[in-house]
Amino acid sequence: xxxLEVRPFRRADRDQLTDLVNMHVAAVVPGVSVSVNTVxxxxxxxxxxxxxxxxxxxxxxxxxxxxxxxxxxxHLLRYRADAEVGETYRDAAEINWFVCRPAASFWPDADQxxxxxxxxxxxxxxxxxxxxxxxxxxxxxxxxxxxxxxxxHIRAVYERAGFRHAGDTEVxxxxxxxxxxxxxxxxxxxxxxxxxxxxxxxxxxxGTGALGFVEIDTALARPERHxxxxxxxxxxxxHIDPAQHGTGLEHWLLAQAADWLRLCGVxxxxxxxxxxxxxxxxxxxxAGFRELTRTDRGWEHRPG
Length: 304
Known about the structure:
Elements (H helix, E strand, L loop, with lengths): L4 E4 L5 H13 L9 H9 L11 E11 L2 E11 L12 E9 L9 H19 L3 E4 L11 E2 L3 H9 L2 E3 L3 E8 L13 E6 L4 E7 L2 E9 L14 E9 L8 H16 L3 E7 L3 H9 L3 E7 L2 E3 L3
Parallel strand pairs: 4-5, 12-13
Antiparallel strand pairs: 1-2, 2-3, 3-4, 5-15, 6-14, 7-15, 8-13, 8-14, 9-10, 10-11, 11-12
């Protein structure tokens, strides 16, 4: 079998790396892929991470190559140690994402390539002398973060290297907009559409008081970056006044948002909630959502 080589990413790897990234994205979110430009841009800067990206002091991308083909890749970040950096990230290093081919008849040594690349990542952490070592799966695609359950081969690599899940688990849900409730009159309640923190906000109002709101992000598919993500939106925020729980207000707000999404030509809506929030998960399921996947956030390197 030809020898494996782990080396720094070269621009000539861009097409093969993008193919590998899109294989992983496709297993998580239906109908989404990213362009070569999106991947290359992500290696240089992550403008969407406007809080943590300015804290990054160094970035490096490594690939494992065999038969002149990229079979695994990892993107690493080192965070600054000064007081401007959040305490959790201060003087830490992170595998921002890690992708590799699963074992197959035509890649029988895929696990060997992944483990060799992971050893190179851990060695880089040691050279950086990082205070803490983290890992994630935040590919440059909408809705792909944490370590999705759809990647058992990546989970196995992390665990073999000594990474352990220490954070939360989130449930990602998806609904066809056509299956969401139709808007119906609600006596004494009006809806107001404004710009919110995470997208277009639909606020339910009674008199001058706000009863709750839902925010919808319809800007997931930026044509200059994403090759395929049209027709997809996500819920950025959903908040209901505790006094309105059990009144069906969340379904009414989703119906208002769905009516707007149909005008936008959006046919799929994604939501994500903590796996521990059974109440909200129940509301979303009752409104027409179904579980798409689960993702585990917060991986830490704990060898031994």
